Amino acid sequence: MSVALTVGPLFVPRIDGISGTRRSVCKKNHHWFGFNLRNGSVLGSGCLVKPNNICCSFSTDDDPCVQQLNDARIIYSVSPALGHNKESHPECSARVPAIVTALDKNELTPKFRGSQILELANFKTATIQDIASVHEKAYVFGLEKAMEEASDSGLIFIEGSGPTYATSTTFQDSLIAAGAGMALVDSVVAASRNTLDPPTGFALIRPPGHHAVPKGPMGFCVFGNVAIAARHAQRAHGLKRVFIIDFDVHHGNGTNDAFTEDPDIFFLSTHQDGSYPGTGKMSDIGKGKGEGTTLNLPLPGGSGDIAMRTAFEEIIVPCVQRFKPDLILVSAGYDAHVLDPLANLQFTTGTYYSLAKDIKRLAKEVCGGRCVFFLEGGYNLESLSSSVADSFRALLGEESLASEFDNPAYLYDEPMRKVREAIDRAKSIHCL
Predict the structure, then answer these.
(1) For residue 244, is it within any domain?
(2) Is 0.85 topped by the overall pTM?
(3) Disulfide check for 231: which of 133, 348, 349, 389 has CB 3.0–4.6 Å away?
């Protein structure tokens, strides 16, 4: 059975007979109070009773929250969307808890690190107006209305024949995810007023966002979390120029489309050539006033650590330096890992360590250290969690432990001739 919604051709929910997980959604003063107990701690975002959780409200430079921020190296938020779940689906509710477990196991949480690492608590959900800064209101209201059908049926698909599903909590979970990213932008900006080396933000959130187009959901994504955060940075903080780096294995077509005509937001994507959704051609450089502020670098299948390091130094660094952003946002997809089941690149945990380390260095050089990472893809739970943990080590300035996870036996020779041709072509198109 299908349900017709008047929200445009990209949003045509269909009903699936599978009974989804139901969970109550409670709101109080627009804050999230969803809990899942594990080993005596609380997973999720909201009122968490843990050491070094901080509120996302800042009043003055003498505020204790601001003082904590000044001393921190990482500030992260957690929004696992436990009710947004389909057990057999790659983008399931196990993803964020797997990361949180790995961070705890590797002593990369506030409990072990004191003031070095902060977890953001009590952040506000995004509003309809926040979401509408990127998405058409018809889509937003249509999704909200579709929650009635999702509640009755347990689970619906919301992308026509595509893979994006919804449960009764998807709309609220998606508002929370977007709010978590916006709150991290607020926190990093607040810290940057008082220190030249503010903490890096990391949003451990789902559903992911970079495929969601202005008119609807796509590719497991509901709302464009990074895109919404970019607009929030401009409107709430006056950070005019934003640079978005997307290293997910799939092209971030939703983010690309949202800013294709915007000269103040630069979108740069590295992704596997020919992979889903088939967009992200090198010839797509933006339109109108935004021409030249989109750079797509499709990498040939089999590209790995050498290819990405080369692309970073020869493409990403000069682009960021030339654009001179006020803020760097990162669509951090961990599905380019050699163990990930959905694509065919050869990134390793060590590759992600290097990316995090180098992006932090670049942000410190060009925009006062203002940088926030947003979780996108990554569907092998072991490679996902180990890679995020090593990203945290990089942001702390500590040594990588990738060698304890990465197995060279999985790797093969990278197609460096094709990589070289792709990088040289991108450099020529963008005069790098």
Answers:
(1) yes
(2) yes
(3) 133
